[in-house]
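Quick one, T. Sequence first:
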Amino acid sequence: MTAPRYIRLDPADNLVVALANLPEGEMVEGVTLTARVPRGHKIATRAIAPGENLLRYGQIIGVATRPVAPGDHVHSHNLGMGAHDTDYAHATEAQPLSLPVEAREFMGHARGDGQVGTRNYLGILTSVNCSGSVARFIADEVERQGWLADYPNIDGVVPIAHGMGCGMSNRDEGYATLMRTIRGYARNPNFGAVLLVGLGCEVMQVPDIIAEGALRGDGLFRTMTIQEEGGTRRTVERGVAMLREMAPEANRARRAPAPVSALCVALQCGGSDGYSGITANPALGHASDLLVAHGGTTILAETPEIYGAEHLLTRRAVSRAVGEKLVARIRWWENYTAARGAEMDNNPSPGNKLGGLTTILEKSLGAAAKGGRAPLSDVLLYGEPAREKGFLFMDSPGYDPVSVTGQVASGANLVCFTTGRGSVSGYKPVPCVKLATNSEMFAHMSEDMDINCGDIVSDGVTLEEKGREIFETWIRVASGQATKSETLGFGGAEFVPWNIGAVM
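Structure tokens:
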């Protein structure tokens, strides 16, 4: 079949999107292109006056900042931010998904608290940047000694270092956010056992982290501080001994059949382009719906990247209270950016714009498609435990490593990440499945991408077919199949907690 050269995404749209590099003079929708238009970029199909709304997906993506003629390239030079739909109509469109005919399972590591891991790592968490190097020294020494080979059900040891934990208030929002993040990682089911290492004099004190009681019901949790142990060498020796002490019990968590309802998938996008909202994101939304219909959980995040599309989520909320929780986070972000001299429209990156995206409204409408059409069950603070099943939203920045860090802290045991420009990353202890939005990038970066969604455009694959392919890939990866990012060794630098408060 001949691949289409452009697409109209909704009958109400006054523009179309190029699916190939189109030359000046080509006829599109009965109009002649007035300039060359790169693939992924937009073309006006009628005259648009200054101040008039431009529509994509049948939704407002901005306003014309100058007269736009039929056939003009529509981009940053003639499209700017405008008002968006704020008719939230809370809980008016929530429709339950039809239940699947067949129950599905994956091979996972069952935990005593009812969670199921898709991986089984020994984790070394840190309370403060000052213990980050020692955590890595402990992990290196475990690898050097080689005794992990005696425990075939353990996937490795993961040190989690970060740049925070001191030089901060111990009573503000930033402190509470970091506390939730560290506790959430301690509870993540992809860790079979956890060692928490502090320095001893930091603001984020180890006793405060464990003040609520046992972070893990299985008892496979130990703590230590460098100052109490007597320095680096002794801490490394003791840390290795503690991990070796917990390893036999962690190794007993063999893979066994578990219902797919135990999967909790973080929905992410990064390095987006004009194809993201056409191919990979809506296909991921279909996969999300399949998992939710099977009783599982998906977590959408990146609050600045649903700005302008939040009304589509509030209408799907299970209650007005849930919808209002989302609006409250939107208002928080408006105040947060304004106080720092920024705007919500600062979000689209240079790479996003090169790929065809213009305003945050346009980017958000495509990003929100990752959430499918399932009812919105709850809205979480960053790193807050996911207590409800179904489709959830977690408040976070749009910066990918920060956002995924929060989703893992909330309990995600799998990450699915769409990209149009070619983002490379991984998120130990959680495997990450990468979806390419276009076939050209998939071919160019095939060693990093797990699934090509560009064939939705080039070969006529339906969103439903691609969504099913993604869903089946999740089951295989959750059962132990390595992703491309795992094979490449990613995951050692992507733990980036959200730093909200002042650094003092």
